[in-house]
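residues and backbone:
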Amino acid sequence: MKKLILSIAVAGLVIVSSCNKDDNMNMPTINVDYPAAYVVNGEDATVSVIKLSTNEVSATIPLMTTGSDMIMWPHHISSHQNHLAIGVPGMDLSAGHSGLNTSGMNGKLLVIDAMNGSIIKNINLSLMNHNSIYSPNGNEIWVPQMDEMNSKVLVYDATTNALLNTINVGMMAAELTFSSDGTKAYVANGDDDSITVINASTKAIFTTIAVGDNPVGAWTGSNNKMYVDNEDGQTISVIDVATNSVDETITLGFMPGIASYNGPKNELWVSDPMNGKVHYWTWDAGMNMWMHGNSFNTGAGAHAIAFSTDGNTAYVTNQTANTVSVVNTTNHTVTKTINVGQKPNGIVIKM
């Protein structure tokens, strides 16, 4: 397939369009040589690049291609060095995950160059995938496969694209994440109300942990915990990584979007998409439990949350507002609202 590359600069915004089937064929078109947040816009299949020093969109990378290579509804994103891995379920998940019919749905594993925006890999999958994520050492890319009965995890060699392992998990596997020490992978089985825990090295299953109703992801905490957002149960299950057990169940009173732990501040944030808010909890050492602090407005469809390295700034994607909120985490106030693409969901910060 011939390449088609179009680069347009309008008022400081760089737009990149590419049509490519083969790996490593796109010529560099942008140069993101600065700390940035990468925001996946599901509806228009683009990635907005936010320059952290200015909190402005500095580039937009289109992902849409044609034919069997077509990218539709990219979702969550991970990074390793100068590469970004994106899960492409091919379905709009912005309204939640209940009652999904994945029959006949195919997914994609997409890898792009974080610096120049070129597409490096575009691998077709037999089933839809909620995300694609690099292993902690960057040697592998793990891809959950969503199915009512036969969910599995595919492990690819990050360099050769070879399929290394296939691991059977629970029903309707959604997000896959790793513990902060990199030793364990966690798969949220939405229809099983469980989390499958996998040895990241041997690929053997450690155990399966019962959690709340319709878990979507076990989100990583740097405090040796995993925070599971149970959509239908409207709870957070707190898993202790060392013991593979649920330490605490936090009742929310709303359907969670994502749970995100701010290590430097020792706070747990949970997005509230239906009300356009983010709630936060603080740790009470005396009572040995999370205590609800307060909530603040961000934007309609509040979803993913990413913290700066020092924990002082948060970035929240608002799916139905088509914005990203920049939040001062000390006083929990929105300092800026950034317009991005249509239905932004996944976000990752790359320094």
User: Anything to note?
Assistant: The chain has no helices and 30 strands. Residues 223 and 302 are 25 Å apart (CA to CA). The two ends are 34 Å apart (CA to CA). The mean pLDDT is 91.
